[in-house]
């Protein structure tokens, strides 16, 4: 089991930046896939970005070139640097991992981008 706690959300103007953090309750060194999803009101949860234990990253087309996912295994933390934010990036952002066939989610952090 692992608990995931997100932080760093908030209100920002379009074109601004935010960095989200996801702190895990145990070592993430051996956890392969970790990622971020987002869910806007009335919509389903969509994948934003993933990162493997080897550092391989994957991004949704809508955030490529603007968002960067990274991980610091010494701090058991995954980050999502979000630049050039747009109003359509407004959503609750969730940290996610898969361990032993089980999904684990954080509680989410709200990101609101004003136009």
What labels describe this entry?
mainly beta, about 120 residues, globular, about 0% helix, seven-stranded mixed sheet, four-stranded antiparallel sheet
The main β sheet shows up as:
7 strands, mixed
Percent of residues in helices: under 10%
Topology, number of strands: 11
Oligomerization category of the chains in this entry: single chain
Instruction: Give the end-to-end Cα distance, rounded to a whole number of Å.
Output: 40 Å
The stretches of 5 or more residues where confidence is low (pLDDT under 50) are: none
- Determine Rg (CA atoms, Å): 13 Å
**Average pLDDT taken over every residue:** 96
Shape descriptor: globular
- Number of separate helices: 0
Order of helices and strands: EEEEEEEEEEE
Question: What structural category arises from helix and sheet content?
Answer: mainly beta
Beta content comes to over 45%
Brief summary:
The chain is mainly β and 115 residues long. It has no helices and eleven strands.
């Amino acid at each position: 089991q692992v608990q995931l706690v997100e932080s760093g959300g908030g209100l920002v103007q379009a074109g601004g930046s935010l960095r989200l953090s996801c702190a895990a309750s145990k070592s993430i060194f051996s956890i392969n896939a970790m990622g971020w999803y987002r869910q806007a009101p009335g919509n389903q949860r969509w994948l934003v970005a993933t990162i493997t234990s080897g550092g391989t990253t994957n991004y949704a087309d809508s955030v490529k070139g603007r968002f960067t996912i990274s991980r610091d295994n010494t701090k058991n933390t995954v980050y999502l640097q979000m630049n050039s934010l747009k109003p359509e990036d407004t959503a609750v952002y969730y940290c996610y991992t898969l361990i032993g066939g089980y999904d684990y989610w954080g509680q989410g952090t709200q990101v609101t981008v004003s136009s």
